[in-house]
Specification:
With about 190 residues, the protein is of the alpha+beta class. It has two domains: about 5-30 and about 110-185, Ribosome-recycling factor (Topoisomerase I, Chain A, domain 4, Orthogonal Bundle), CATH 1.10.132.20; about 40-105, 2-Layer Sandwich (Gyrase A, domain 2). It contains five helices and six strands; from the N terminus they run H-H-E-E-E-E-H-E-E-H-H.
């Protein structure tokens, strides 16, 4: 049996776990925390020129102050469509239009809404943990195949410990990211 067939691709497992973390960070960035953020508009799509288009492709999104997001729409004809898309997005924000500039004042979150958002953040974190564990499971499957192909018990144990250490590291990162996000949401 060739030596490289017995090795486990730890770089691939790491890359896939990094992907789970990147996905979690993206989902966290779309959660509203009572503080203005340009990324809170990422999920909002505008019907522009016959195709759903992200807001940042029809105008410039800025955060001039902690409780305000502004969108400078490039095409005057698109202003009403952008305004409508924001109102229908479920963000709970009422846009105010001034020519081609749309201002989005971010209201304070009440206690109940903050608790709901922390639960949503916890769900996102659990999805990331499941993704990391699925990558771990794939690594363990590779390990079983390598053992069946003639990998020694000692090498098998070393690789098993490597994969488990990697998994523990990423689960700890998910937990830390969740704790940080929940503190940010609950901050008044």
């Amino acid at each position: 049996m060739a030596e490289d067939e017995l090795d486990i691709d730890l770089d691939d497992l790491t890359r896939r776990m990094d992907g789970a973390m990147a996905s979690l960070k993206h989902e966290f960035s779309s959660l509203r925390t009572g503080r203005a953020s340009a990324s809170m508009l990422d999920p909002v799509m505008v019907e522009a020129y016959g195709a759903p288009t992200p807001i940042n492709q029809v105008g410039t999104v800025n955060v001039p102050e902690p409780r305000m997001v502004t969108i400078n729409v490039w095409d005057k004809a698109m202003v009403n469509k952008v305004e409508k898309a924001i109102m229908e997005s479920g963000l709970g924000i009422n846009p105010q239009t001034n020519g081609t500039i749309i201002m989005l004042p971010i209201p304070e979150l009440n206690e109940e809404r903050r608790r709901e958002l922390t639960k949503v953040a916890a769900q996102y974190a659990e999805q990331a943990r499941v993704a990391v564990r699925n990558v771990r499971r794939d690594g363990m499957e590779q390990l079983k195949k390598a053992k069946a192909a003639g990998m020694s018990e000692d090498d098998n144990k070393i690789w098993h410990d490597e994969i488990q250490t990697l998994t523990d590291k990423y689960i700890a990162q998910v937990d830390k990211a969740l704790e940080t996000k929940q503190q940010e949401i609950m901050q008044v």
